[in-house]
Design brief:
Distance between the termini: 157 Å
Largest sheet: 9 strands, parallel
CATH topology of the largest domain: Pectate Lyase C-like
Strand order of the largest sheet: 1-2-5-8-11-14-17-20-23
Radius of gyration: 36 Å
């Protein structure tokens, strides 16, 4: 009897154990299923949140798309948020892709098609990136319809390259470089700028910044001022043509331009070159007595050496660093300083009256 009871007890315990194991297995299966469901949801959501290294735009795209090659976006503004830092936006086919503001390192390339940026009353591309960011704009057609402000406005970046592009009909500047916090470097290569009421390339830093702009293989035709360089800025002009404009080259006081490349053509403008005249740094004597000497300044305001000559040696002569009166009357003396890579030479006459 006790054996039967024991047997029954063992059987009952075995059934309870199996039920416990079954419940545990079902609970584990439920937990694993939930985890798999969560993992699937995360996996499905990740591509939508990720930014691609290369994105695409198309004239028939949609900014709701992921900007992939098979599902391109419509505009540069739509694509830039889906493009990773240092990535590239490519144009899949020709189209007008609209204005965009750039705040990170990126390349926009439409060189294999016709990539248009048409704007009215605003800017085409505004570059307002960080001090270590590099931006490349390649193969773009900027059109301002007469009321567009700047084609490309450079506010901040380490470097901006504009290549193989065209600009027309902007009222501000085709390229306007106005950094206030970063010494930006801008490279303009193989660019055509034409038919604008505004300027071609303008460099006007503030806040003591000293940007540098290189203009290479570029044609600027029929604008207000082809190349305008403000205080603190330095421009380098190579193998380029500035023609048909009110002013070809305008260098404001404190700005520097190297335009000595013999391949440059600054021709047929209303005024080809406007530049601050190098002045003799110091007072030039207006009177000198016969057989006496008066000291002449020896440097320009740019620190260049001055060479003095007398145009009327019968009235006065130059002796070292001084002018000497010879006979009564008016003597003309000439100050000259050679040109440098960034400065025009000085050539200026002064009148000295020789008295008793």
């Amino acid at each position: 009897m006790r054996q039967e009871i024991s047997a029954c007890g063992v059987a009952s315990a075995g059934m309870t154990s199996r039920r416990t194991v079954g419940i545990a297995q079902r609970s584990l299966a439920t937990l694993l299923g939930a985890l798999l469901l969560i993992g699937s949801s995360v996996a499905l959501a990740s591509p939508a949140l990720a930014q691609a290294t290369r994105t695409w735009v198309s004239g028939v795209g949609d900014d709701a798309n992921p900007c992939s090659r098979t599902a391109p976006c419509k505009t540069f503004a739509g694509a830039i948020g889906k493009t990773a830092i240092g990535g590239e936006i490519n144009a899949l086919d020709s189209g007008g892709f609209g204005a965009v503001t750039i705040t990170k390192s990126i390349t926009i390339d439409a060189s294999s098609v016709h990539g248009g940026i048409l704007v009215s009353g605003t800017n085409g591309v505004v570059v307002n990136a960080g001090p270590t960011d590099d931006v490349i704009l390649r193969g773009l057609d900027f059109f301002g319809v007469g009321t567009g402000l700047d084609g490309v406005r450079v506010v901040s970046a380490r470097s901006v390259s504009i290549e193989d592009s065209t600009f027309a009909r902007f009222s501000g500047s085709a390229v306007n470089v106005i950094p206030s916090a970063v010494n930006t470097r801008v490279f303009i290569d193989n660019v055509q700028i034409r038919n604008m009421t505004g300027n071609g390339v303008s460099v006007a830093p503030s806040g003591g910044r000293t940007p540098k702009v290189v203009v290479n293989r570029t044609r600027i035709v029929n604008v207000s001022t082809a190349l305008k360089v403000g205080p603190g800025a330095t421009a380098y002009l190579y193998d380029s043509t500035l023609t048909g404009s009110a002013i070809g080259l305008d260098v404001l006081l404190g700005g520097l331009v190297n335009y000595g490349d013999p391949r440059n053509r600054i021709i047929e403008n209303g005024t080809n070159v406007v530049t601050p005249v190098q002045q003799v740094n110091g007072a030039v004597p207006t009177k000198v007595k016969v057989q006496t000497l008066a000291i002449l300044p020896q440097l320009t305001n740019k620190g260049q050496p001055v060479t003095w000559t007398s145009k009327r040696p019968g009235k006065c002569v130059i002796q070292g660093t001084r002018v000497k009166g010879i006979s009564l009357g008016i003597c003309t003396i000439h100050a000259a300083s050679p040109a440098t890579a960034t400065l025009l030479g000085l050539s200026q006459n002064y009148l000295v009256t020789v008295t008793k």
